[in-house]
Structure formats: C-alpha cells, structure tokens
Amino acid sequence: MTSRPxxxxxxxxxxxxxxxxxxxxxxxxxxxxxxxxxxxxxxPAAPSRHFKTKxxxxxxxxxxxxxxLAEAITASQQNLDGASFGDRLDAAAxxxxxxxxxxxxxxxxxxxxxxxxxxxxxxxxxxxxxSEQLLGLIGDGQRSGEVREGQLERVALPIFAALxxxxxxxxxxxxxxxxxxxxxDDVIASIxxxxxxxxxxxxxxxxx
Length: 208
Hints:
The protein is mostly helical. Helices cover about 65% and strands about 0% of the residues. The protein has ten helices and no strands.
C-alpha cells in the first residue's frame, strides 16, 4: 500500500502523540515504529530519522511525561504565594494524583525507563524535577515552622508513598465505592497531620 502524503509538519511530535495513544491502548510491548509510521501515514523508514530504535522512542516518551508532570505541579502552585504549607501541599498532591490517574500507562513507563542503565542524562535530570519541587515545598514548610523537623528526604518519604500508593489503588479500581469520593481528601488530611510540628508529641517518630 502506498504511504499517504505526510501533512503533520512535526514528525517527532506526531510520533510521540500516537505512541502515547498506543501505549495506553496496548502497552509498551506492542509499540512498533513501523506501525506508528503506518498509523500517521508516513513511510516505514521515516521514524528512524528521529528515533533510531524503539527504546529511543520510549525514552523520549518518558522524558515528555516527566516534563508534563513537573509542569502540572508548577501550575498547581500558581496564585499560592504566601499560602500555607497545607494549601500548597494539597494543590501539589492533587496535581500529582490527577496526572498519575489520567496517565497510568505513561507513568509506569516513565519510572521504568528512568531506572534503565541506558537512560540519558537529560532524562535523569528531568525525571527528578517533580520530586525536587515537592521536596522544596516540604523544605519551605520546615523553614516556616509548619512541618516537623528532620532529614528532608525522610520527612518526604511517607508523603510520596501515600500519594503514589493512593494513585495506584485508584488506577487499579481497588478503592471501595464508599471511599472513592473523599479518599484523596482523607489521604491529604492524614499527611498533613503527620507533618505537623506537634506530630512527635502525638507519638509519631521524628526522623533524625
């Protein structure tokens, strides 16, 4: 079959857009540069001008995913200058969980590719942007006296675990109907209670 004329004007973007759709529909194993070329109407050899291998395409897809996640968290903090730690964390937490639930297959790919020995330096740096944003937010909370003292990474770990765990439950459909409506509200409220400076007095261990 003769290839249809290519009118997209930006082949890498078109390939990544279609790849993300295919990832959501069929998973990373089913991704094929040849099939992507056919889907968007270019010659089978055209994708190789930008992505030499399927892994290169997956790396680029993960990179754009981490960029979008960082952008979502940045957007969540707009108009929150001078806001309390609780309000800022609430907004960031909802941005993370929203991205994770809406892009479950992409998020799995992002974390998988991030830990690959072949991951590029650019991907490694971009992959840490969103977590550095949250660490910065928690550090600000410590400096303002709204978050308990302790090594920053140890204070942050339960927060990351709670949000990532909740997102996983939501994606897998394991949340009972009676908690799905207010489940994230409850998780964020629990996180904020454990972050309070008086948490240690309440019996919670303080990271040292």
